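Practice problem: predict the structure.
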Amino acid sequence: MTDDDFTLKVWGARGTLPGCGESQTAFGTETCCVEMRIAGHRLIFDAGTGIVPLGREMAAEGVAAADLFFSHVHYDHIMGFPFFVPLYKPGCAISVSAGHMLDGRSCAETVTDYMRAPFLPITPKVFSAAVDYRSFQPGEVLTPQPGIRISTARLRHPNGAVGYRVEHRGRVAAYVTDTEHEPGETDEAVLALFAGADIVFYDTTYTDAEMAKHRGYGHSSWEEGVRLAQRAGARQLVLFHHSHYRDDAELARIEAEARAVFPDVVAGRTGLAFRLAAPVDRLEGVDGAHD
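Answer:
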């Protein structure tokens, strides 16, 4: 990997619950987890069940460091955390960052409160890796590694959530999930995270028609994701945090409907990968690709 590399991979795109049954497999069964590899560094966003296979791969490859960022700590976003293999590897260095807490607890205190009896038989004390817990306030700019800049913003979600904008050498990726839009209004904080981005991950749990029934749940629609991406000039939209009620046929239909409005859209699914091309490459007509 060179200093110019910026790749992304979806390890889990479902929300609330992992996929259940044969009708929820085509888009993957895992909950939220997105990996970004930037200039030799690994950044991970959320620790849903998708982080479990990611951790196994990292251990097999001998990866010794990663930076993990929670959007928030509702169970679907952290249920894989205690099973992330690198945490149990001596010599590994893992930073864990959270900025959504509204009750005064730090990131370390929140993780400790989650990993305790009677919910789990282990606590964070069993970790063999060097774990650096970092707390921040939404709106702060984070610099987890040299040359990597992460802007943050508060999202509209019960108990709080944080959206991220990751920048490196002219490439931009935004990770914005678990946020509720106000019909007829534009969320300026999300718009700023999306502005001119190469790729954006957005909470598309519902459709516009379903929003009224689910007011206050803290989620958005694929139509709003398209509107934001278009207004912000984002190049690619990934539909994310799929409703646990959606089967594969419904997700395929939503993906097709979204593409009819905004061609550069894809429904998130386990294994979906992207490479962000360097700005000079774009001038030569070479764009980021996904497979």
